[in-house]
Structure formats: C-alpha cells, structure tokens
Automatic annotation (TrEMBL):
<keyword id="KW-0597">Phosphoprotein</keyword>
<dbReference type="InterPro" id="IPR003594">
    <property type="entry name" value="HATPase_dom"/>
</dbReference>
<dbReference type="InterPro" id="IPR003661">
    <property type="entry name" value="HisK_dim/P_dom"/>
</dbReference>
<dbReference type="Pfam" id="PF02518">
    <property type="entry name" value="HATPase_c"/>
</dbReference>
<keyword id="KW-0472">Membrane</keyword>
<dbReference type="Pfam" id="PF00672">
    <property type="entry name" value="HAMP"/>
</dbReference>
<feature type="domain" description="HAMP">
    <location>
        <begin position="185"/>
        <end position="238"/>
    </location>
</feature>
<feature type="transmembrane region" description="Helical">
    <location>
        <begin position="164"/>
        <end position="184"/>
    </location>
</feature>
<protein>
    <recommendedName>
        <fullName>histidine kinase</fullName>
        <ecNumber>2.7.13.3</ecNumber>
    </recommendedName>
</protein>
<dbReference type="Pfam" id="PF00512">
    <property type="entry name" value="HisKA"/>
</dbReference>
<dbReference type="InterPro" id="IPR005467">
    <property type="entry name" value="His_kinase_dom"/>
</dbReference>
<dbReference type="GO" id="GO:0000155">
    <property type="term" value="F:phosphorelay sensor kinase activity"/>
</dbReference>
<dbReference type="InterPro" id="IPR004358">
    <property type="entry name" value="Sig_transdc_His_kin-like_C"/>
</dbReference>
<keyword id="KW-0808">Transferase</keyword>
<dbReference type="InterPro" id="IPR050428">
    <property type="entry name" value="TCS_sensor_his_kinase"/>
</dbReference>
<keyword id="KW-0812">Transmembrane</keyword>
<dbReference type="GO" id="GO:0005886">
    <property type="term" value="C:plasma membrane"/>
</dbReference>
C-alpha cells in the first residue's frame, strides 16, 4: 500500500481557507475604514463650507449696517472677528466692482487672490478654503466679499485618522490570518477525521464507514456519499467472492469427472470399446468445462467490454432473426414449434455479438424447458423509444419461490421441473442480465409453474444522427 504523502502547508485546505478569509476580511475592512475616513473628510468639509457661508452672511450684514459710518467702522468690526478666529487663520477681503481690493484683514496677506466669480461656491486653494459672494449695493462701492480659513487643523485631524486607519489595517492583516487559520482548523477538523478514517480502511474491513455527525452539512453529505460508495464496493466484492466460490465449485464437477475417467482408464487393461467410452466421457466433460469457462469469461467481460468499446448501430431485427434461424433446427428436433413476429428496422446502440448472445440464451433457455409439442414465441417490437424483445414459452415455468433468484449466477431451478437433457451452468440468464444492463436496458421475467415463462428485454432505441 502506498504511503500517504503529507499535504504541503501552502496547498492545504486549511491554509487556503485562512488565506481567502484574510483576503476577504482585509479588503472589506480596508474599504470600510477608507469609506469612514472619506465620510469624515466630507463631513468636515461640509461643516467648513457652512461656517464660511454664515461668515459671508455676517460680513454682508456688517457692511449693510456700518457703511453709513464709513469703511473704518467696518474694518474695526471685521478685525475683531478675525482676531476671534486666529487659530483658523480666518481672513476677509472687500472688493469693488472690478475685483480690486477695498479692504483686507491682516491674515489675508499672502493668501491667493480672490476667485474670479462671486458665485458663493466654496473652493480649496492650497490649504485654504475660501469663497467669494456678491453684496448688496452700498455707498462704499463694495461689490463682493471674500472670506476664507485655513484647513490645517482639519488636515491634522485627517492625518491622525489616516494613521489610525493604517494601524487598524496593519492589525487586521496580523490578526485575520491567525484567526482565519484557527477557524479553518475548526472547520476542517471533521475533514481530517474523515481522511484519517478513510486511510485506515482495508479490503478486509469493508463494513466500516466514515463518521456521520447528523448535522446535515457538507461534511455529512460527503461522508454519506463515500459511505454509499463503500457499501456498493462491499456489495461488489461480496458478489465477486461468491461468484469465484460458485465458479470454483462448478468447475470442480467436470474436472473431478475427467480425473475419475482418466484414473479408471489407467487402473488396468481394458477393451478398445471400454477405452472409447471413457474417452467419450472425458470429451463430454471437457465440452461442459469449456462451455462453463466461456460463460464465466463472457459474464466477467460483459460490462467492461461495453464500457471500453465504441457502441455501434445494431439492427436488432437481424440479430433476433439470426438467433431464431440458429435454433430452428433444435426446436424442430424436439418437437417444439418456434414462432417469430419480428418488426423490421429496429436499431439499438451496442455490441452485436453480445446482443446476439442475449437472444440466443433466451431461446436456448425457452427450448430447454418446453416439453415436446410445446410452443416458443419470439417477438420484437418498439414503442416510446424502446426496443422490446420478448421470448415466451408454454413450458414448465418457474415456481414463485425460485422466480426472485432466476437471474442469480449459477442458480438452477428445482430439478423436479428439469428434463434429463436440460442440464446447464446456471449462468445463461445472468449473462443476459449483465449484457442488457450494460447496454442501458432491463430484463424482466413473468412465469407460473406449469404454464410457461415470458422473458422480456427492453433496450433504448438508437438515435438517428
């Protein structure tokens, strides 16, 4: 038995589950954290814009109220406001109709010029957020106002968030593989147990099965599937063992008869006629042995040949007619009427010689168990995509207790219902069943003791290309 090769760590299911889990968690968490960061950024930006719009409204109100007192009064008020927002570097500019400066706060020095349009739309210029809006007509000639503030404090907050996001992603990339590998170990623990159990199975212990936990998950379904396979294998092996034992038993009889005849021949001087009789007995037993061996070989190769060979289109009516012609003389010699009702042009896919063997075995079986003066009917028809080959006789029939075992290998019916010349191997109908099932069909039997037997073969019709 070949030693089990250990699974590479990087090819193991546990590693792959852990890797996929890590990848999924990392991608999802990174996307979520980046999304939160961007949401926070847009929230901050929206808040800054709202404050700037409020500042524009406040500056406009100051201009409207203090313009009669002159520009100095307005400047003093705006200077006090700028001093209250020193940490944000808040600034203001008062502009005339041509965009020239009328007045500016001290923090406006060195800042970018005002936007060309007074559309009250916030804009980012460098690390500043600013907007320009029109003002009502006033005696000082102020046509628009620009306000702005630095984003540096907000950017510092965003940089802190970026560092937190990067740290969280790094932590996830460290923790996720460990957790994923641990969880994958829990998930594949039952698989490891199944693998260990399957590795311990031996041909002599085919009654053992993989553990079934009863939770009806994927592992239970896998165990159930493998257990069904093991059951089929066990059944197959048991059938093979029984078949070999029965075959050995059947072979023993003709071999013992041949040996006995030879021992008698060697036991002393005998007449020419006596030797001839012994040799004829040896020949008869040899022929029986040859038939039995050929049937055993045919039975063993029926399924394998169909699986290996490329099925051909076979005219089943020709096969049935040929088999009927072959047994016509045998039926006539035994005083049995052989009738045929064969529909033409019925084709199936399969192996011709095997299908001929089926028809021959059915006719041979019917003729063997039909008394003189009886009748054997061979019928071939088709319906609903199925070819139907039927062989019926009015012979001795099969008893109800024997009918379920009719297709068993080496099974022979009650000897009280057999004629002296109907000795067979008990493989004929087993061969038919194996061949028919290998061709995707089925064979059935209806019989009543003393009234006759009807054997029916159904095969799928060939599909015309």
């Amino acid at each position: 038995m070949r030693a089990r090769r250990p699974v590479s760590f990087f090819r193991s299911v546990r590693f792959r589950i852990a890797a996929l889990t890590t990848l999924a968690v990392a991608v999802a968490a990174t996307a979520a954290l980046i999304g939160l960061r961007q949401a926070f950024y847009w929230t901050l930006l929206h808040e800054v814009d709202r404050v700037l719009l409020e500042d524009v409204a406040e500056v406009t109100l100051v201009i409207n109220e203090l313009s009669p007192e002159g520009l100095d009064a307005i400047a003093d008020e705006l200077t006090r406001k700028a001093a209250g927002h020193k940490q944000h570097r808040w600034f203001a500019r008062l502009l005339d109709q041509d965009g020239d400066r009328v007045w500016r706060s001290s923090d406006a020095e060195g800042t970018p010029p005002a936007p060309a349009k007074a559309d009250a739309v916030p804009r980012t210029v460098g690390d500043l957020r600013t907007l320009r809006a029109a003002t009502p007509t006033n005696p000082l000639g102020i046509a628009s106002v620009q306000v702005g503030s630095s984003m540096s404090l907000y950017n510092d907050d965003l940089e802190l968030i970026d560092r937190l996001v990067a740290g969280a992603v790094a932590m996830i990339l460290i923790v996720a593989p460990l957790c994923g590998y641990w969880l994958a170990g829990i998930a594949t623990r039952d698989l490891e147990a199944m693998t260990a159990k399957a590795s311990s199975l031996r041909p002599t212990q085919l009654n053992e099965r993989l553990p079934y936990r009863g939770v009806d998950d994927e592992f239970d379904r896998l165990a159930d599937t493998i257990n069904h396979l093991l059951a089929r294998i066990a059944t197959f092996v048991d059938e093979r063992r029984t078949f070999l034992a029965d075959a050995a038993h059947e072979l023993r009889t003709p071999i013992a008869a041949i040996r006995s005849s030879i021992e008698v021949a060697l036991g002393g001087e005998r007449s020419r006629e006596s030797y001839r009789d012994l040799m004829e007995q040896v020949l008869d037993e040899s022929e029986s042995l040859e038939v039995l061996v050929n049937q055993v070989l045919l039975l063993s190769e029926a399924n394998a040949t169909v699986d290996r060979a490329e099925p051909e289109r076979v005219l089943l009516d020709e096969v049935a007619a040929k088999a009927a012609d072959m047994f016509a003389g045998v039926a006539e010699s035994r005083g049995i009427r052989l009738e045929c009702d064969i529909a033409p042009d019925i084709a199936v896919n399969g192996i011709r010689r095997h299908l001929h063997q089926v028809a021959s075995n059915l006719l041979d079986n019917a003729i063997k168990y039909t008394p003189e003066g009886g009748r054997v009917q061979l019928t071939l028809s088709d319906a609903d995509g199925v070819a139907r080959l039927e062989v019926a006789d009015n012979g001795v029939g099969v008893s109800p207790e024997d009918l379920p075992r009719l297709f068993e290998r080496f099974f022979r019916a009650d000897r009280a219902r057999q004629r002296d010349d109907t000795r067979g191997s008990g493989l004929g109908l087993s061969i038919c069943q194996s061949i028919v099932e290998a061709h995707g069909g089925e064979i059935t039997c209806k019989s009543r003791a003393g009234e006759g037997t009807t054997l029916t073969v159904q095969l799928p019709l060939a599909v015309d290309s």
